[in-house]
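Q: Convert this sequence to structure tokens.
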Amino acid sequence: MNPGIETKIDGITYRSLLEAKWAVFLAALEIPVLYEPFELAGYIPDFIIPKSRLVIEVKPALTVQDCTPALAKIKASG
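A:
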């Protein structure tokens, strides 16, 4: 797996350009999010929408199978 390209926008350093792009997209939709707000047993969600407590995980996946490693990590976090 390639390391992400750290990207800084509005004072927040995102671990990858993909996460930064999603932050810009969510901001354009006026959806307030928190970036990497907490850690759950080895898993850090990329974003959370505070009002709904919805967790968002961003991956460069093209198929459901591409998400399998991330899903296993999320499930293991409790």
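The two ends are 24 Å apart (CA to CA).
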